[in-house]
Specification:
Order of helices and strands: EHEHEEHHHEE
CATH architecture of the domain at 16-69 and 99-143: Alpha-Beta Complex
Structural class: alpha/beta
Oligomer: single chain
Shape: globular
Number of strands: 6
Distance between the termini: 52 Å
């Protein structure tokens, strides 16, 4: 009786694609889940959890992304240094005004597993507030975020 061996991807065998995502008019969490799956490579048949099999992801129009409910006011982002009294907080609305790419990248970071590989994966995310990006020579493929029935785009 023949047994089949399990195949695992090896880092030197993987070719990484470039994908471009337009985030305009979409919700932060919905976009972040699709981006996290693209970064990990869960959409490809050679997905291996411990190997980087994902794509480079370019996200444009992050300044046109939507926050639902009261998240714009109630969600807070904290920064601090090593000194006492240095804890500072900003609401999501303030962060969207300053740097909308930070809000999206933190949402994606939260959806990646917490390990050494995720620190490498998050570097493959390239986010830009407008429609322009410097990655045209890589010839990225467009990725359309599917909309669910009954939900707003």
């Amino acid at each position: 009786m023949k047994t089949m061996k399990t195949w695992n991807a090896k880092p030197e065998e993987v070719t990484h694609k470039w994908v471009i995502v337009d985030a305009a008019g979409h919700r932060v969490g919905r976009v972040a889940t699709h981006i996290a799956n693209l970064l990990r490579g869960k959409n490809s048949p050679e997905f291996t959890p411990h190997v980087d099999t994902g794509s480079f992801v370019i996200v444009v129009n992050t300044d046109k992304i939507e926050l639902t409910g009261g998240k714009a006011i109630s969600k807070k982002y904290f920064t601090h240094s090593r000194f006492f009294g240095s804890l500072k907080s900003k609401t999501a609305e303030q962060m969207m005004g300053e740097d909308s790419t930070f809000v999206l990248s933190e949402a994606v970071r939260g959806m990646l597993p917490t390990n050494k590989l995720s620190r490498h994966l998050i570097q493959k995310l390239k986010a830009y507030p407008g429609a322009d990006h410097p990655h045209a020579p890589q010839k990225p493929e467009a990725y359309v975020i599917p909309t669910h029935k009954g939900l707003k785009k």
